[in-house]
TrEMBL record:
<dbReference type="InterPro" id="IPR029016">
    <property type="entry name" value="GAF-like_dom_sf"/>
</dbReference>
<feature type="domain" description="Heat-inducible transcription repressor HrcA C-terminal">
    <location>
        <begin position="112"/>
        <end position="341"/>
    </location>
</feature>
<dbReference type="GO" id="GO:0003677">
    <property type="term" value="F:DNA binding"/>
</dbReference>
<dbReference type="InterPro" id="IPR023120">
    <property type="entry name" value="WHTH_transcript_rep_HrcA_IDD"/>
</dbReference>
<dbReference type="InterPro" id="IPR002571">
    <property type="entry name" value="HrcA"/>
</dbReference>
<comment type="similarity">
    <text>Belongs to the HrcA family.</text>
</comment>
<keyword id="KW-0805">Transcription regulation</keyword>
<dbReference type="InterPro" id="IPR021153">
    <property type="entry name" value="HrcA_C"/>
</dbReference>
<dbReference type="Pfam" id="PF01628">
    <property type="entry name" value="HrcA"/>
</dbReference>
<keyword id="KW-0346">Stress response</keyword>
<dbReference type="GO" id="GO:0045892">
    <property type="term" value="P:negative regulation of DNA-templated transcription"/>
</dbReference>
<comment type="function">
    <text>Negative regulator of class I heat shock genes (grpE-dnaK-dnaJ and groELS operons). Prevents heat-shock induction of these operons.</text>
</comment>
<keyword id="KW-0678">Repressor</keyword>
<dbReference type="InterPro" id="IPR036390">
    <property type="entry name" value="WH_DNA-bd_sf"/>
</dbReference>
<protein>
    <recommendedName>
        <fullName>Heat-inducible transcription repressor HrcA</fullName>
    </recommendedName>
</protein>
<keyword id="KW-0804">Transcription</keyword>
<dbReference type="InterPro" id="IPR036388">
    <property type="entry name" value="WH-like_DNA-bd_sf"/>
</dbReference>
Amino acid sequence: MAVEQSIGLNSRQQQVMRATVRHYVSTAEPVGSKALLEAFDLNVSAATIRNVMGALERSGFLYQPHTSAGRVPSDSGYRLYVDELIKPSKPTAQRIDRLLTQQLNWQGWSVEALLQEAAQILAHLSGYVALVTMPRSENMMVKHLQLVPISTEQVLLVVVLDGYGTESIVVRLPRGTTGVGTTQDDGVLERELQILSNFLTTQLCGRPLSEISSLDWDEVDTAEHHVLALCQAIDDLTQRKRQPQTHILVTGVTDVLNQPEFAEQSQLRNLVALLADGREQLWPLMCSDDSYPLKIWIGEENPLEPMQGCALISATYNRDSMPLGSVGVMGPTRMLYENTIAAVEATSSYLSEIMSGLDVNQ
């Protein structure tokens, strides 16, 4: 991902470069000076436009796919366009925010259902593939915990997270710590498990799953062996949830593959395979950091070969100030970036607002 830098084009070069990108995005045909003169009010002659386009080609921002053809933006040209020549479209941002507000009803939905529907709206509006990474479980808030007896030596710890996602792990109690086969002993175990369930819920409700192991067990009055076994199981659960996750929701593949850039079958197969089976490779490309909350990969900037004819734009969605996941769009480099960036940023902002408003006590 390139860092924004000034390249010092004069105003006429900027005007012609901006017009060339927009004309090529709309037609998918190499752009000539006559086409720009007819389509845009540049207030210069065709000869002047040709000279400016020649200078832009020598600088590496345009190229000719064929000797007799017009010019096409290069990856460097698109990067210039994104970094220097545009601002995100406010009307597009307002439109997708309105659609999300009208069509998404959070009440009673799971987090996954909400994210899937948001991705479908983003894909429909942009015309490209929409991708959303699921929240990392350790950053989700605990809503409720329950210990469910499986046998006299096994207990299931169920953790209900906000958005009604769940995590679970089997707790193995040490042999000989409970009686076997008597109603009285089963009743004792159930009472102790209820005490522990209430304690865990009281201690952890409204806190991230990552804090589940930082408990003051001195406050709970129940069998020590249960506590020791539970501590180990909780530690195992939190360690498991700290492992990298690659659950990415993908929608809109069919529409974008109709674009002329994907006419070559080998390129099409490689991209489809990546979206179907290689999503773990997309995860690090989408995950933003504090320095770059918006990430844009263009063409050969992409480290993944099947994506080197594509652009990927993603932004983080948060709970308050805590990053939960990322939402993005992938399409051909021939993309109207001002609209796509606005759509991605508006979607991430909407999801952040929803996530920050979740009430785990409901």
